[in-house]
Amino acid sequence: MLDRAQEVEDRSPETLDDEDANADRSTLTRRDLARSLFAACDRLAHRQAAALVDQVLEEISETLIRGENVTLCNFGKFVIVEKKERKGRNPRTGDFALVKPRKVVSFRASKYLKALVSKNETAQA
Predict the structure, then answer these.
(1) How many Å apart are CA 3 and CA 110, to the nearest integer?
(2) Which residues contact 66 (CB under 8 A, 6 or more apart)?
(3) Whole-number pLDDT of residue 95
(4) How crowded is residue 51: how many other Cβ atoms within 10 Å of its Cβ?
(5) Within 13 Å of residue 52, how many CA atoms lie on the same side as its CB?
(6) Contact present, 61 and 70 (Cβ < 8 Å)
(7) What are phi and psi of 92, to 5 degrees?
(8) What radius of gyration, in Å, describes the C-alpha atoms of the chain?
(9) Are 50 and 62 in contact (CB under 8 A)?
């Protein structure tokens, strides 16, 4: 985790801006989160904001890797779902094969977030 924070700190602001030139504007990125955090906190440097975003995402990732769920109030819940073994089909060849059991991450939005998204959809229509 500290390596990632150091990597972020080593990059110059000019490099960060160049990377954003190719970003899809309809997707929220780590960079967007860092910039928003930087704008909201007067005493936080841009590199510190980027490192903070990375640290939060790293903590969420590590928690999920341990098999624990992550709940963020008024946002949603990241849940580990255990998938059972099942029969699958190769779409290219049509051959059947067994898909091994696995764990996947699922996101369940909170009622609050769902209401905000729904309200925004009706406002745009």
Answers:
(1) 33
(2) none
(3) 94
(4) 21
(5) 14
(6) no
(7) -75, -45
(8) 20
(9) no
The label of the residue with tokens 């229509």 reads 125
Residue with tokens 């939060």: 56
Contact in structure between 2 and 44 (CB atoms under 8 Å): no
Smallest CA-to-CA distance from 79 within 56, 57, 58, 107 is with 107
Backbone angles phi, psi at 96, to 5 degrees: -90, 145
Q: What percent of the chain has a predicted confidence (pLDDT) above 70?
A: 79
AA letter at 105: V
Q: What pTM value is reported for the model? A: 0.69
Task: Please report the sign of the dihedral spanned by the C-alpha atoms of residue 66, residue 64, residue 11, residue 52.
Answer: negative
Which spans in 1-125 are helix H? Answer: 2-10, 13-20, 30-40, 46-65, 111-124
List CB contacts of 101: < 8 A, sequence separation 6 or more: 82, 83, 84, 85
Token code pair at residue 5:
């924070």
